[in-house]
Design goal:
The protein is about 85% helix and about 0% strand. By secondary structure, the protein is mostly helical. The chain has one domain.
């Protein structure tokens, strides 16, 4: 019985350990970035109440989505480095891409609706 190339390929333990350490370092760097971004968003609170409230809401939603997307990417990276063979890697990648496309579509819709609502509320307050 013939075996495919994917069944013969195994990720060496040293490479897996190095990749896991790299993913963890990247996760820590991202967490530092997110903390800084949150501080920056808070610093921009000084405009008119309606605009400020709406902008803060949209900003918080966007940051939440970004955090979830990056966390999902790190989880995917950890799964990839633990994959036993190429076939498992390909399945993980396909699943990840499908999940991300669905999440990004839902997030774009949500942000669009929030931005539209904020613009309508701001326009009504000006009248």
């Amino acid at each position: 019985m013939e075996r495919s190339l994917g069944e013969h390929f195994e990720v060496p333990a040293e490479m897996r350990a190095f990749a896991e350490k790299s993913v963890e370092q990247a996760r820590q760097a991202f967490e530092s970035f997110v903390a800084t971004a949150h501080r920056t968003v808070s610093a921009f609170e000084g405009q008119a109440e309606t605009t400020r409230k709406g902008a803060k809401e949209v900003g918080e939603r966007a940051m939440s989505f970004a955090e979830r997307n990056i966390a999902s990417s790190f989880d995917f990276a950890q799964k990839i480095v633990r994959a036993r063979d190429v076939n498992e890697m390909m399945k993980l990648q396909g699943d990840y891409i499908n999940e991300q496309m669905k999440a990004l579509s839902e997030q774009a819709k949500d942000l669009g609706e929030s931005t539209t609502r904020m613009a309508k509320e701001a326009a009504q307050k000006k009248q």
